[in-house]
Design brief:
The chain has helices spanning about 5-10, 70-80, and strands at about 25-30, 40-50, 55-60. It is of the alpha+beta class. Strands 1-2-3 form a three-stranded antiparallel β-sheet, with no helix packed on it.
Length: about 90
């Protein structure tokens, strides 16, 4: 990330929120294969009534659960560091 951009983002107190998009349990969906903004959570499974099989839960990337764990590698690939990640 451009150093000046990082300075500006810090200046305006910009934060990357703790959401499913940045969680280790989530696989982001390819928008060509499904609606944008949706992902699959491997942590939680449910019995799908129509197919009577256990399925991983579809989640929206803007959501979050109490079991959230940061995907540090993805955060670093995307932003170059985790300094903008919300800390509470």
């Amino acid at each position: 990330m451009d150093t000046n951009k990082l300075i500006k983002l810090k200046e305006i107190n910009y934060k990357i929120l703790k959401t499913c998009a940045w969680c280790t349990s989530v696989t982001l969906s390819n928008s060509k294969n499904g609606p944008a903004g949706w992902a699959t959570c491997q942590k939680y499974k449910y019995l799908h009534l129509k197919h009577n099989t256990m399925r991983e839960t579809s989640v929206h990337v803007s959501g979050v659960c109490p079991q959230w764990k940061p995907n540090v590698q993805l955060i670093q690939q995307t932003f170059g560091h985790g300094v903008l990640l919300e800390r509470h």
